[in-house]
Amino acid sequence: MEATVFNPIQVHLLKMFALDSTQSGLVELKDVLYRHYSAQMNAQLEEMWQIGELSQERLDEINKMDLHKLQ
């Protein structure tokens, strides 16, 4: 059996999250992570829109694609 080696970020997170093992703590953490990554995604999409990489036409094309087939 191969041992798992954690990087420093993973070790820090494991130690930090060991302090709260409640269901409400998990729900709160999921919410915080969702809001963080959602804000990052929105900022990146806004930048793409501003520089012309993203447009309504491109969104319409993406909407018609089968995204499960993308690699």
Which overall shape is indicated by the principal axes computed on the Cα atoms? Answer: elongated
Give the termini separation. Answer: 30 Å
Number of helices: 3
User: Tell me about the biggest sheet?
Assistant: none
The helical percent reads 55-70%
Residue stretches low in confidence (pLDDT < 50, at least 5 long) are none
What is the typical, i.e. mean, pLDDT?
92
Beta-strand portion reads: under 5%
Based on DSSP secondary structure assignment, what is the total number of beta strands? 0
What features would you describe in this structure?
- The chain has helices at 8-17, 23-51, 56-64.
- The mean pLDDT is 92.
- The chain is mostly helical and 71 residues long.
- The longest helix is centred in the middle third of the chain and has 29 residues, at 23-51.
- It contains 3 helices and no strands.
Indicate the topology.
Layout lengths: L7 H10 L5 H29 L4 H9 L7
What key phrases describe this protein's structure?
71 residues, 68% helix, 3 helices, elongated, mainly alpha
Quick overview of this protein structure:
The chain is an all-alpha fold and 71 residues long. The protein has helices at 8-17, 23-51, 56-64.
